[in-house]
Amino acid sequence: MADAPSTEPPPANVEDTSVDNAEDEESKEILLMKQRVEEMEREAKKLRELQAAAEASSGGDENDNQESEEDKAVSDTRSVYIGNVDYSATPEEIQVHFQACGVINRVTILCDKFTGHPKGYAYVEFAEPEHVDAAVALDNSLFRGRLIKVTAKRTNIPGYNRGGRVPIEVAVEEEEAVASKWK
How is residue 4 annotated by DSSP? Predict the structure, then answer.
């Protein structure tokens, strides 16, 4: 019977070591994940502390929002819309074109948020509201071979021109105008 193959099972130690190695690897991965979670929790705590400090230093948020709305409205009275702007125009070129109107605070060329390409219009903010009239006089002037459209910038009304729905403030004003007309 020496020629017969041995039917003895392999030693039990070999199987146990492979199972032990797999368990060790899993426990190492679990430890690494726990360490990452602890690190993320520490970072989140730091971010919360920074955010709380920033909010405390800024003071009242409601007043800041009202002031920013007022600042935007004042800025709009000093700004002009420029349409049909050449796509390769730079803010410096627009500033040179309008510098005869008065001191310019800012030139903004709007770009598409997906492609980054200019949309073909811009805004110029002047230091004084009086300069807007001089800029509007440049309506239909030639800029880089194109006739540009220059108008006073309108203040954006949220919800205006949204699919036939009229904002409540506008509807109330229209109703009051109609009512006063029939009195």
Answer: S
